[in-house]
Amino acid sequence: MEINYGEYVAGLVSKGREAQNVIDGYSQERVDELCEAIAYALTVPETALKFGEMLVAESGMGVAKDKQLKMYSKVKGTWAQMKGKTSVGLVDSNKETGIDTYARPMGVIGAIIPVTNGEATPVVKSLMAIKTRNAVILAPHPKARNTNVAVTDAIRDVLHRFDAPVDLVQAIGPEYVSVECSQQLMTQVDFILATGGTPMVRQAYSSGVPAIGVGTGNVVCIVDETVADELPRVADMLIRSKTFDNATSCSTENNIIVLESVYDEWEKEMAKVGAVLVKEGSADKEKVVKTLWPETPKNHDLNRHIVAQSAGEIARLAGIGAPDGTRLIMVEENGGYGNEFPLTGEKLSPVAGVRKAKDFEDALAKMLCILDYQGKGHSVSIHTKDDARVTKMGEVVPVCKIVVNQPQSLVNSGSWTCGYPVSMTLGCGTWGHNSISHNATWKDLLNFVYVSREIPNWQPSDDELFSEKIKARFA
User: Fold this and answer.
1) Are residues 406 and 446 in the same domain?
2) Active-site residue among 221, 250, 400, 428?
3) Which of 48, 81, 130, 411 has the lowest tally of Cβ within 10 angstroms?
C-alpha cells in the first residue's frame, strides 16, 4: 500500500497547531516549569544512559557512555542558558528609542534530527520550541527512528504529568521515516530547524519555508611551536575531542597541522595517549584511504560502515596493524587538496589527517586550502601562546568559530568551560550557505513585534553629519 506522506504530515501539523494554540496562552512561569521538568527528567542518569545505549544499538554508531554525557551537557546546558530568560510577552522596553519589543511564537517547527546526535538533539530542540511557545515535530534519520520515538514519548510523558498538551512534541512514526516524509514536513510547517547532512540542509533552504540549517563540518587544527612545553596537554585535548562518541560530532579535529619544529615530539605524545601515525607513502595509508573512501578518486563518498566506529574496528577493516588500545588513527597527508586527496575532508570517525608546516604562515595557508575544499564557515582551532596568531586567524579564516587551546568537539557547541551558546545546530554563515553565523538557540525560534511611540526629534544638522574634509572634496 502506497503511503500518502502529505496526508500523514498534515495530520501531525494539525495536532501541533491545536497544541500550540494552547501553549500560546501560557505564562512565562508555566513555560519555564515545563522546560525545567523536561530537562530534569531526560537527564536522570539511567534515562540518559538508556537512550545512549538504544541509539548505539539501533544505529551501530558511537559510544553509549559518551552519549549519556552528551545528554547531561547539552540538555542541562540548554536549560541553564534559558532559565530565567524572558520569552513570553514584553522582552524589552527602550525609552530612548520609544520601542517596546514583544516575543511571539512561530507556530509549528519542523526539526530534522541527525543520526549522529539522535539522543540529545530531540530533547534540545523540544526545549527550544517549548521555551518559545511553539510546537515541534521531530524527523529523525532512519537509523534513529526508534530512539527518536522513545525520547519523544519520554518528553510527552512529562508534558502529560504537568497537564500540558502532549502534541507540543511529536515524532514522525517509525514506519513513516523517510526522505519523502521529511520533505513533506519541510513544506507544511511554519519554520524548519535542520541539523544533518548537506543535502538535507539544502532541501530545507529550498523548501519555500523559512529555515535555519547548518553547513558541513571539517575542523582544521593548528599546533604551533609556542606550546612545545605543553604537548602532553595538547595531546590529551586532541585525543579526548577526536575520540568522543567515536567522532560523531561535526566539530572533531579532522585535519591537524603541526609545525615541523615540534612535530616529532608531538607524535610521541600522541602515541602515549593511544594515537597511531600512518606515515606518508606507506602501504597502510592507501589501505586506510580506500577503507574510508572506496571509490576515491572517482568520488568522495564516505564508507557508511566506518562512520562512528572505533579506531580498532577501522584498523581491522583496513587490514593495518594497530596496537591494542589504539584510540585514534592519524594519517600523514602532505600532498594536495580535494577528491584526489580525500584525507583533506570530513571523516566522521576517529581518523585524522596530519600535515607538517614550516611556520605559522605556512600552516595558515594549508588551513585555508583545506577549508576551500570542505568545511568553510564551520570552525577551526589552534593550540598556541601567541595571541597575534589568533587575531590573524580571526581576520582571515572564513569560519564562524575559532577555538583556542581547547578540545574542539567538547566546546564548539557550548560547554561549561566555553562561552559559546549550547546548541545542536551550529550556524556557518554565508561561507557555509547558512542564514546564521551563531549557534542556534531558543531565541532563533521567536518572532518579534516592535511597538513604536513618539520620541523627541533626533535629526542632526548637516554640520554634525558631514565633516569639513568630505564637504571640501565636493566644493
Assistant:
1) no
2) 250
3) 81
For residues 290 and 376, state if they share a domain: yes
Burial class of residue 415 in the structure, from the number of CB atoms within 10 Å of its CB (0-12 exposed, 13-18 middle, 19+ buried): middle
Q: What is the pLDDT of residues 415-432, one digit of tens each?
A: 999 999 999 999 999 999
Whether residues 280 and 296 fall in one domain: yes
Whether residues 125 and 258 share a domain: the answer is: no
* 311-318 and 283-292 helices, crossing angle to 10°: 110
Helix (H) or strand (E) holding 400: strand 399-404
Residue 460 lies in a domain: no
* Res 195: pLDDT: 84
Q: Residue 185 sits in a domain of what CATH number?
A: 3.40.605.10
Quote the pLDDT of residue 457.
96
Residue 465 lies in a domain: no
Give the gyration radius of the chain's Cα atoms: 24
Domain span holding position 113: 5-213+441-451
Predicted TM-score (pTM) above 0.70? yes
| pLDDT at 215 exceeding the cut of 80 | no
In a domain, 426, yes or no: no
374 shares its domain with 226: yes
pLDDT in tens, 124-168: 999 999 999 999 999 999 999 999 999 999 999 999 999 999 999
Q: Using CA atoms, how far apart are residues 440 and 399, in angstroms rounded to an integer?
A: 16
**Residue 185 gets which letter from DSSP?**
H
Closest CA to 433 of 209, 114, 201: 201
**Which cell goes with 306?**
566506518
| Percent of the residues in the chain that have a pLDDT greater than 90, as a whole number | 93
250 belongs to the catalytic site: yes
H or E stretch including 90? strand 89-94
Specify the length of the chain in residues: 475
Query: What is the pairing mode between strands 351-357 and 328-332?
Result: parallel
Cis omega before residue 297 (within 30°)? yes
Question: How many Cβ atoms sit within 10 Å of the Cβ of residue 475?
Answer: 5
Specify the number of domains making up the chain: 2
Could you tell me the end-to-end alpha-carbon distance of the chain, in angstroms, rounded to an integer? 79
